[in-house]
Write a structure and sequence with these properties.
By secondary structure, the chain is an alpha+beta fold. The protein contains ten helices and ten strands. The chain folds into two domains: 2-216, Up-down Bundle (Rhomboid-like fold); 231-330, Immunoglobulin-like. The longest helix is centred in the middle third of the chain and has 25 residues, at 100-124. The N and C termini lie far apart (56 Å).
Length: 332
């Protein structure tokens, strides 16, 4: 079961950090291949793993640098391609959600959490001197965060059994299935060549990160909203939060261009964009976004630097719980 891509639309352009991570992994693998004769030179291969791999007893002794270097080493082309495929499919949306700098730190943090989990386990089972390599632990963290932040995303997946076919699987089904398989493999073959405990440790760290980001990020300043609500609108939103069918999510985001605004807001549970209405009020210089179906949302977003410009709501798009509203501004 291999993921190809998802239907989760990015908001902030191309995921250059994710591309860079993939490129670095590929380049370092080429260096490995050249240096070891595609791992045929056992002495050089051993020296490489000894120097740059995450050896459990060294990791628990404080050698954090070896964790970071080990995250970019791979034991073969299949190991590399499998990891990079998952990073390509899931990492772009995590970068888009967290931002580039935070994504780098979270990626490394998930890798460290994975290495620590593996090291504690390896030391308890007599494998404290065996080096571990690969980006799997960090990428498992990406999957954990993705599950929390984008549970309704659909993953286009290749199924290979008696036949080959492509299906769309919700992230809330695909990723837990992947995690359950890691747990099963860790129990069935605990002393095999794959560090499944690292996958589990990274995944749990990603779950925790996603939960904190989604539920407490704005409150503690981790997430920086790009809009400000006036006092009246904040009170209106507080009143609406008491409605039985009103679901509170992260604050809407406003992207400001030279001649346009684009508002992005979370509105999960709608059938399609026909349920969404948007009106501009020139007196308050705000856009009211509301729904007409059974799931009720009512949000006011104030625009800045309007001055005497004409405002036109051009387009409303809805995909995977995210509404995007494009607004043109023209000077009369």
């Amino acid at each position: 079961m291999f993921p190809l891509h998802d239907d989760n639309e990015r908001i902030h352009g191309r995921p250059y950090v994710n591309y860079l991570l993939i490129a670095i992994n590929a380049i370092i693998f080429l260096v490995e291949v050249v240096a070891t004769g595609y791992f045929s030179d056992r002495t050089t291969t051993f020296e490489l793993l000894e120097k740059y791999g995450a050896i459990p007893y060294k990791v628990l002794g404080g050698d954090i640098s070896s964790i970071i270097t080990s995250m970019f080493l791979h034991s073969g082309i299949a190991h590399l391609i499998g990891n990079m495929l998952f990073l390509f499919v899931f990492g772009d949306n995590i970068e888009d959600k967290l931002g580039r700098i935070k994504y780098v730190f979270m990626y490394i943090g998930w890798g460290i959490a994975a290495a620590l989990a593996h090291s504690f386990y390896a030391m308890s089972t007599g494998g404290g001197e065996i080096p571990a390599i690969g980006a799997s632990g960090a990428i498992s963290g990406v999957l954990g965060a993705y599950l929390i932040l984008f549970p309704r995303a659909k993953i286009y997946t290749v199924i290979t059994a008696f036949f080959i076919t492509t299906v769309k699987i919700p992230a809330i089904a695909y990723i837990p299935f992947w995690f359950i398989m890691q747990v099963i493999f860790s129990l069935v073959n605990p002393l095999g060549g794959v560090a499944y405990i690292a996958h589990i440790g990274g995944f749990v760290a990603g779950i925790l990160t996603g939960y904190i980001w989604k539920n407490f990020g704005t409150r503690y300043g981790i997430v920086t909203p790009q809009i400000r609500y006036p006092r009246k609108d904040r009170q209106n939103m507080a009143d609406m939060a008491d409605m039985a069918d009103m679901t509170t999510h992260t604050q809407p985001e406003v992207i400001k261009g030279s001649n346009f605004y684009e508002i992005i807001a979370e509105m999960p549970g709608l059938v399609d964009q026909s349920e969404i209405q948007a009106n501009y009020d020139p007196n308050t210089q705000s856009v009211r976004i509301f729904t007409t179906g059974s799931r009720k949302y009512d949000i006011n977003v104030r625009l800045s630097d309007i001055q005497d410009k004409n405002i036109t709501i051009d387009q409303i798009k809805y995909l995977n719980g995210i509404v995007r509203i494009h607004i043109s501004k023209q000077t009369p």
